[in-house]
């Protein structure tokens, strides 16, 4: 009996086998599959080869070559992605490059991308703007110094950018030095500006002139009326307003001279470009190199070439003559009877 007890105790100390679990029923498996969320397959944008078989392919012709289809996801068009490599240049090298630019170029560069804007507009790049403006101040007819109430980037936009500072249109022809503003006629003729003010009020308000009329901001005008009504001593208030306007008007004459000089230089530049196309020495010399002399062209068109210069495309344009412009000019001359007229 003791032997049986010892044998049972030895068996009891042995590790017991775990019974195998029965496989789950089909119903439980189906419930688990339904309750579990299904993940969508990851969409790939790899190019796939598609065999294109033309509809007019005759039997026995060699099989058409596979055409690489465009990816499902459209890529970036143009060259917008090339600017990202510019920011990988060391900062010291970028600053050395930017130091050779004018204020207008720095302004346009800051609008190119966010990364370039952060580089050009940070405080460490302020000396680049200062050096660029110092070169401008050394010109024969320089603009006035940058006012203290705006920064150099804002001043560069006011000087060189022709867009309206209120709506962004390309017709910002009207400027006001005292307001540091460039605006278009649509904005001046809108509810933002007021043109109904007497001479006494005009002497104490910041105005902009357009079409022989003076405009001021509606908010500034209403604020001026409220302060004048609430002031204890109106003479002191008007004297202070007049002094403030006089202080902001400093540099008006220099700005007008610089703007007039710049407009004159621009007119001369456009005139030279126009002459380069309109005048006979450029286009006709190009024709003469190809064997088409002035006398031969006049014989083809049965008249003087100056008579049809107004009708020829490109003669009155103020842009450089490109290959497409030469093709248009050749096509037009061919229409006058020169069937074998060569491309310029």
UniProtKB/TrEMBL annotation:
Ranges where the record places region Disordered: 1-73
F-box domain segment(s): 83-132
Biological source species: Leucocoprinus birnbaumii
Protein name: F-box domain-containing protein
SUPFAM superfamilies to which the protein is assigned, alphabetical: F-box domain
InterPro entries: F-box-like_dom_sf, F-box_dom
Composition bias type Basic residues, residue spans: 37-50
């Amino acid at each position: 009996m003791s032997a049986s007890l010892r044998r049972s105790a030895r068996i009891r100390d042995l590790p017991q086998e775990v019974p195998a679990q029965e496989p789950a029923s089909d119903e439980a498996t189906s419930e688990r599959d339904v309750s579990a969320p299904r993940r969508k397959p990851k969409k790939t944008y790899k190019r796939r080869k598609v065999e294109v078989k033309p509809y007019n392919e005759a039997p026995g012709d060699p099989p058409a070559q596979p055409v690489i289809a465009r990816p499902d996801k459209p890529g970036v068009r143009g060259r917008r992605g090339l600017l990202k490599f510019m920011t990988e240049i060391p900062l010291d090298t970028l600053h050395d490059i930017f130091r050779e630019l004018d204020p207008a170029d720095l302004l346009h560069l800051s609008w190119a991308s966010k990364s370039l804007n952060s580089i050009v507009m940070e405080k460490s790049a302020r000396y680049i703007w200062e050096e660029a403006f110092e070169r401008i101040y050394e010109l024969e007819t320089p603009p006035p110094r940058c006012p203290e109430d705006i920064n150099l980037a804002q001043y560069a936009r006011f000087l060189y950018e022709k867009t309206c500072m209120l709506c962004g249109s390309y017709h910002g022809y009207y400027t006001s030095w005292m307001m540091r503003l460039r605006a278009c006629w649509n904005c001046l003729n809108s509810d933002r500006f007021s043109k109904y003010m007497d001479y006494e009020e005009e002497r104490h308000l910041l105005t902009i002139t357009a079409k022989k009329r003076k405009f001021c901001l509606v908010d500034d005008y209403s604020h001026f009326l409220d302060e004048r009504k609430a002031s204890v001593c109106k003479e002191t208030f008007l004297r202070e307003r007049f002094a403030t306007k006089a202080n902001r008007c400093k540099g008006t004459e220099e700005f007008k001279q610089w703007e007039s000089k710049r407009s004159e230089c621009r007119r001369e530049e456009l005139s030279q470009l126009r002459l380069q196309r309109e005048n006979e020495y450029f286009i006709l010399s190009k024709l003469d190199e190809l064997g088409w002399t002035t006398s031969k062209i006049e014989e083809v068109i049965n008249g003087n070439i100056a008579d049809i210069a107004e009708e020829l495309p490109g003669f009155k344009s103020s842009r450089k003559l490109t290959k497409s412009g030469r093709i248009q000019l050749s096509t037009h001359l061919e229409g006058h009877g020169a069937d074998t007229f060569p491309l310029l």
